[in-house]
Design goal:
- The chain is of the alpha/beta class.
- It folds into 5 domains: 68-243, Acyl-CoA Binding Protein; 254-340, ATP-grasp fold, B domain (D-amino Acid Aminotransferase, Chain A, domain 1), CATH 3.30.470.20; 382-513, Phosphohistidine domain (Glucose Oxidase, domain 1, 3-Layer(bba) Sandwich), CATH 3.50.30; 532-627 and 665-884, TIM Barrel; 630-656.
- It is 48% helix and 17% strand.
- It is built from 35 helices and 31 strands.
- The strands form 6 sheets. It has an 8-stranded mixed sheet with strand order 12-22-21-14-15-16-17-13.
- Strand 16 (444-447), helix 18 and strand 17 (467-469) form a beta-alpha-beta unit.
- The radius of gyration is 34 Å and the shape is elongated.
- It binds adenosine-5'-diphosphate (ADP) and magnesium ion (MG) (2 copies).
Length: 885
């Protein structure tokens, strides 16, 4: 045991930088004392003293008892009161305070030092007997609860019974006599429950209280809490021993909590609640209904002015919004705690922007203050805070925002019904790429299976559509077109509301508020643009998405997928005709019809992007994704076979289709005939797409709009694939330029999404104008994990067990996939100085991955439209942090 070491600090000796040993509360009390603010005097026993207590068989070592007594003398001198004195007793609070706050996990005791004689001294001294017994009964209860481990409700129940007997509405209506009786009853509870008399020796009270607070570090709920929040178990808690001030000495006294700014809106005005003639946690415990802090202005203007002054001092000192506990004793304000206040996304943004404007912090600091996710949270429709909905189930909060509509169980039907102008919520087990139309048509999606990176979740986030996933409580009966949750039955067409920010599912159309970027958000994003280095592009496949992203500040399109253009209901038959055609004529027909459709899509997108670069990826998925499902086909054929009426022709058609589907079936489609391989084997499709792109470019330029087209070839693994396809792209481009008599500037590049492409990046870069890392596929192929299946089969287990720290499909894996990205970028630039490098996987919108992209020196990241503002802020933060290193 090291007695040289300092285990006890007076508040005068404490400060913020001693937080690791004084705990959050102790450090803030010390800091406020040094600032000259009105803090009742006291001392802190350190977290290291807590560890000594545990090493010493859960007893306070003798030398610490002596030390405490020494400091106590000091307190007596400062206050002119004596601990244990019969006439003028010094009363104390004993308060726990860990380094990381663990709300409600550990305990506080007030009014310590009272006993049967000193309570009378206190009564005489203050000339208020009622007050003295009010303190005493509170103390006995807290001591019984915290030190002797008697459940709090036993005291609460006794109080309630007494109130009823004497017909008292509130604790304020209890008379001195009532309180005296309560004290006797409480002492009896202690005797009955703990088998001891309530201790009358103040020093015994103090030492056992310190020991109990230290001991509470290892109570069950504290351990569970630390496990859940990844807090180390050996940190220990500090104990603060502080002179009492009294908020319960009449109507010129009170207690309350105040935030220096409104934590829900961020408005720069005091926000909080107080109660007159009350003590401790009365405000929080809901003993009486507290009053808004703004009424204090009228009720006690003098105190309110003191409050304004100290809150300003605190905010200026901490340079952040503070959450403050205070007590008023006879018109004098005392501070009992301050800490950085928790706040909503909206408030976080407003406070950071306002503080920079006020000159309290600089712009860089203000950008660092905001969690990038906050920017997205404020972009969606929200449940009206005034609404009081009936919540029937809870799933995973997969994509933020609120959505309401009629329950529909199939994507096709969702499409149909929404065309009639109805709002729908698609409810399903999970969604698949074929459901995309239904997802687009719905206000939001609710699935009963699948996690945060399931298809529905990813697609919904991409579209900025609210989504609740994996809501297992809900049991869908597709045949009856209804779902059950508990014993509640929701039928097709019933209205529900989902909140993708919380995972809640509610009955009916709940009131919502409209989304928009606030003035402060726009200000923050403007500063972000000034600070960031990375370009921010978007993944957008259609005009409306491109428009949205442009409004959010996208500097181009990093990935325009063309397969979605094939999925639209009126185009699927044409695509099928193309795939199934047996003659060149048939194929030609389909292509001729598809080309102008694609062209007009591109025209729309180019127009929306107003001259910014647009990367178009040529068709990537295997063709069988456009064909009917094999099992469904077999079922249909069986039905036709046993049907009564004559349907030979229909049957023949289906059988032919089935043969084709079987023929195209692959056991590993992800590694099969797709991407540039398809472009090489079935050249007509890519040629048609390239024609559509360049014709669109020509048309749009004629309208006076600038375009920077970039053609991207997917899934290249060997430079020869790229060479061959590039030649064809250049040829088609040339033809169209000649035809239109116009010179076009364009780039041809590749998606880098296979490990071999990374290893041979130098060779590929000699031929390509740009690289865009497709980190979804690159993660699949580097890990050898299927994105569609791994999550439910084993990935969640890996994450729970800590085999993997992060989900690599959510956050770019720095040691494996990230290393490949860095290597390919460097070696690509070695052979091609002008190589542009970006990333377009889901990772492009994820802050941690964005920081890696900054580190690797990429030119841009590309993400879904609603992630663009998030990415702008994250990119700014990454740059600021890397400059500071
Ligand atoms: P918690 O960590 O649960 O907030 P605290 O130690 O802050 O617990 O104490 C709870 C409340 O007890 C405080 O908000 C304050 O109202 C009251 N309190 C604590 N110490 C004193 C004191 N010295 N004088 C008056 N009231 C006190
Ligand atoms: Mg507190
Ligand atoms: Mg891919």
């Amino acid at each position: 045991m090291n007695s040289e070491k300092k285990y006890i600090y007076s508040f005068e000796e404490g400060s913020l930088d001693l937080k690791p040993i004084l705990g959050g509360k102790g450090a803030s009390l010390g800091e406020m004392t040094s600032l000259g603010l009105p803090v009742p005097s006291g001392m802190t026993l350190t977290t290291e003293a807590c560890n000594l207590y545990f090493e010493n068989d859960e007893k306070l070592p003798e030398f610490l008892k002596e030390g405490t007594k020494e400091y106590l003398k000091d307190l007596e001198e400062k206050t002119g009161k004596n601990f244990g004195d019969d006439d003028n007793p010094l009363l104390l609070s004993v308060r726990s305070g860990a380094i990381i706050s663990m709300p409600g996990m550990m305990d506080t005791i007030l009014n310590l030092g009272l006993n049967d004689t000193s309570v009378q001294g206190l009564a005489k001294e203050t000339n208020d007997e009622r007050f003295a017994y009010d303190c005493y009964r509170r103390f006995i209860q807290m001591f019984g609860d915290v030190v002797l481990g008697i459940e709090g409700y036993k005291f609460g129940r006794t109080l309630d019974i007494l109130k009823e007997e004497v017909d008292a509405d509130s604790d304020l209506d209890l008379t001195t006599e009532n309180l005296k009786e309560l004290v006797d009853q409480y002492k009896n509870i202690i005797k009955d429950e703990a088998g001891v008399d309530f201790p009358q020796d103040p020093m015994e009270q103090l030492i056992t209280a310190i020991e109990a607070v230290f001991g509470s570090w290892n109570n069950n709920r504290a351990i569970v809490y630390r496990d859940a929040h990844d807090i180390a178990h050996d940190l220990g808690t500090a104990v603060n021993i502080q002179t009492m001030v009294f908020g319960n000495m009449g109507d010129n006294c009170g207690t309350g909590v105040v935030f220096t700014r409104d934590p829900s809106t961020g408005t720069n005005e005091l926000y909080g609640e107080y109660l007159l003639n009350a003590q401790g946690e009365d405000v929080v415990a809901g003993i009486r209904t507290p009053q808004s802090i703004q009424t204090l202005k009228e009720e006690k203007p003098g105190v309110f002015d003191q409050l304004v002054e100290v809150t300003e001092t605190l905010e200026e000192h901490y340079q952040d919004m503070q959450d403050i506990e205070f007590t008023i004793e006879n018109g004098q304000l005392y501070l009992l705690q301050t800490r950085t206040g928790k706040r909503t996304a909206k408030a976080a943004i407003k406070i950071a922007a306002d503080m920079a404007d006020e000159g309290l912090i600089d712009k860089e600091e203000s950008l660092l203050r905001i969690d990038p996710e906050h920017i997205e949270k404020v972009l969606h429709k929200q449940i009206d805070p005034e609404a009081d909905p009936e919540v029937i189930a809870k799933g995973l909060p997969a994509s933020p925002g609120a959505a309401a509509g009629k329950v529909i169980f199939s994507a096709d039907e969702a499409e149909k019904i929404s065309e009639q102008g109805e709002k729908v919520v698609l409810v399903s087990l999970e969604t698949t790429p074929e459901d995309i139309g239904g997802v687009i048509a719905s206000q939001g999606v609710l699935t009963t299976r699948g996690g945060m990176t399931s298809h529905a979740a990813v697609v919904a986030r991409g579209m900025g559509k609210p989504c609740v996933c994996g809501c297992e409580e809900i049991k869908i009966d597709f045949e009856a077109e209804e779902f059950l949750v508990g014993n509640r039955r929701i039928t097709k067409g019933d209205h529900i509301t989902i909140n993708g920010g919380t995972g809640e599912v509610m009955i009916g159309n709940v009131e919502m508020t409209e989304p928009r970027l606030s003035v402060e958000s726009r200000k923050i994003l403007k500063w972000a643009n000034e600070a960031k280095e990375l370009g921010i592009r978007t993944n957008a496949d259609n005009g409306p998405d491109a428009k949205k992203a442009f409004e959010f500040g996208a500097e181009g399109i990093g990935l325009c997928r063309t397969e979605h253009m094939f999925m639209a209901a009126n185009r699927v038959p044409l695509v099928q005709q193309l795939i199934l055609s047996e003659s060149e004529v048939e194929k030609e027909e389909a292509l001729t019809e598809l080309e102008p459709m694609q062209r007009s899509d591109f025209e729309e997108i180019f127009t929306e992007m107003k001259g910014k670069p647009v990367t178009v990826r040529l068709l990537d998925p295997p063709l069988h994704e456009f064909l009917p499902d094999i099992v469904e086909l077999v079922e249909e054929i069986t039905e036709l076979k046993y049907a009564e009426e004559d349907n030979k022709e229909e049957l023949n058609k289906k059988q032919k289709l089935l043969r084709k589907v079987k023929e195209m079936n692959e056991s590993n489609p992800m590694l099969g005939l797709r991407g540039c391989r398809l472009g090489i084997i079935v050249p007509e499709i890519y040629e048609m797409q390239v024609r559509a792109i360049f014709k669109a470019v020509v048309n749009v330029i004629k309208e006076g709009v600038e375009v920077q087209p970039e053609i991207m070839l997917p899934l290249v693994t060997h430079v020869n694939e790229f060479k061959r396809l590039r030649k064809r792209v250049d040829k088609v481009a040339e033809e169209i330029m000649v035809e239109a008599d116009i010179e076009l500037d364009y780039k041809v590049g590749t998606m880098i999404e296979l490990p071999r492409a990374c290893m041979t990046a130098d060779e590929i870069a000699e031929e390509a104008d740009f690289f865009s890392f497709g980190t979804n596929d690159l993660t699949q192929t580097t890990f050898g994990f299927s994105r569609d299946d791994s999550e439910s089969k084993f990935l969640h287990h890996y994450l729970e067990e800590g085999i993997l720290e992060d989900n690599p499909f959510v956050s770019l894996d720095p040691n494996g996939v990230g290393k490949l990205v860095r290597m390919a970028t460097d070696s690509g630039r070695q052979t091609n100085n002008d190589l542009k490098v970006g990333i377009c996987g889901e990772h492009g919108g994820e802050p941690k991955s964005i920081a890696l992209c900054q580190e690797y020196g990429l030119d841009y990241v590309s993400c879904s439209p609603y992630r663009v503002p998030v990415a702008r802020l994250a990119a700014a933060q990454a740059k600021i942090k890397s400059d500071r290193e």
